[in-house]
Amino acid sequence: MHDGPEHHESASPQSDDSDGFSRRSVLRTAGIAGAGLGLGAFTGGTAQAAPGESAAAAASAAAPKRQGDTMIGVPFEGRGTVRVGIIGLGNRGGSMIDLYLAIPGVRVVALCDPVKDKTAAAAKKVTDAGQPAPATYTKGEHDYEKLLERQDVDFVYVATPWELHFPMAKAAMLNGKHVGVECPIAMELRELWELVDLSERTRRHCMQLENCAYGKNEMRVLRMAHAGLFGQLLHGAGAYNHDLRGMMFDPEYYEGPWRRLWHTRLRGDLYPNHGFGPVANYMDVNRGDRVTHISSFGTPALSLAEYREANMPPGDPSWKETYIGSDRTISLVQTAKGRVIRLEHDVSAPHPYSRINSLGGTKGVFEDYPERIYLEPEHTDYEWKDFAEYAEWDHWLWKEHSDPPGGHGGMDYIMIFRLMQTMQLGLVPDFDVYDAATWTAPVPLSHASIKAKGAPQEIPDFTRGLWEKERPGVDSEKPED
């Protein structure tokens, strides 16, 4: 996956996905995934629709029977050294390995990518860091299965094209590994349910590595919200508005056209996690509130074709593609407590980078890009104030790591550091498979809603009723020394 242009250091895309698998594998998988994708393929399609209810809404409401105990509150086993295997060594995986190597008590023991040069470059980083040479798996599209069979891997990091996330996360858990996956964790509703069931059955954690939840601003707003500074929460907004046209048509940036091809299959929000995850955290979704419905609307799909016409030579393979993905998707999400979350997705049209990142309540509002705040009773003139004045509310992770290494303003490192810390100390992770499924559910459900002319689609309760209980999340307490 790509980790964004360097000029977006503090506000760039956080975790689009790795380009680490071969063009042949991606194209073949994409062809299979793109064939016959009717509405049922993205919603499970097994439940019967009630009168006036879409088949998608009925399918999403049908929670399968629990196959194991909940993973809510389940700690890691605790270990002095965390042994990591990495699958996918493209733009994202090839850079994130640096952060794993920077954390004491973490060993990178195995690497997988069919592009041998990328695997070799990553392996050299491991030995340059003073660790033993990792095992490497480069023999085709299924060699990752051999990595997952190893007995010396505790945690698997997946940074591959989107269509590979689900099968790799599934295989990792079936092989007894905890797994962290780049966004989105899966592309179909039935896959989200299967990951929930597998996590519960195997007792392995399956996590969406949503690094925007660990952004400095996001964590500050989270702590302020929990302290009541915004009053009773009413609304929030999040987005992934980032012009990716040049990168999607660049054969050297992504390994094959896998990301662009998703715009030929789905009309909805392909990448909701970066905007949705932080706002869901502010509102304690799955920890006292839950999201219940989503209504989505999409513009015509015009911009990718216009870009192709202006920039791609005749005969380029992209001329065979027909784009249906909305240039901009706007969704409204309702919560059980009546709050409203607005989500936006736009990677096809010209737009300065923005995740919006807004939160409003009965005492005031915060808006990002640019960051600004207004809170009563200290503010009375209805003029935006400087968010820097609230630095005292920074999360302990940002106070302890004030200048973290890595890209995206340091949030990548903060996320990996905290995840590895919870594994080493045997703590409950900050987020779990229920969060992963919830944050990704807008992918298939926004597509279904747009096809149904904006009709609300029910968002499943992946916790199966346990969302009402308050519990810790990303707003964590610093562990005792």
Describe, in short, the structure shown.
By secondary structure, the protein is of the alpha/beta class.
Could you characterize the architecture of this molecule?
The protein has helices at 23-34, 39-43, 55-61, 91-102, 116-128, 144-148, 165-174, 189-202, 216-226, 245-248, 258-261, 273-282, 303-311, 396-400, 411-425, 433-440, 442-451; strands spanning 82-87, 106-112, 135-137, 155-158, 178-181, 206-208, 233-241, 291-298, 329-335, 340-346, 358-361, 364-367, 372-375, 457-458. It has 481 residues and is α/β, with parallel strands linked by helices. β1 (82-87), α4 (91-102) and β2 form a beta-alpha-beta unit. The longest helix has 15 residues, at 411-425.
Which percent bin holds the helix content? 25-40%
Strand line-up across the major sheet: 13-12-11-7-10-9-8-14
Residue-averaged pLDDT, rounded?
89
Distance separating the two termini: 36 Å
Q: Which regions contain 5 or more consecutive residues with pLDDT less than 50? A: 1-60
Count of alpha and pi helical runs: 17
General form: globular
User: Which radius of gyration do the C-alpha atoms yield?
Assistant: 21 Å
SS strand fraction: 5-15%
**Largest sheet data:** 8 strands, mixed
**Strand pairing plus helix content: what structural class?**
alpha/beta
**Beta strand count:** 14
User: What quaternary form is this?
Assistant: single chain
Question: What are the salient characteristics of this protein?
Answer:
481 residues; alpha/beta; eight-stranded mixed β-sheet; six-stranded parallel β-sheet; 17 helices; 32% helix; disordered N terminus
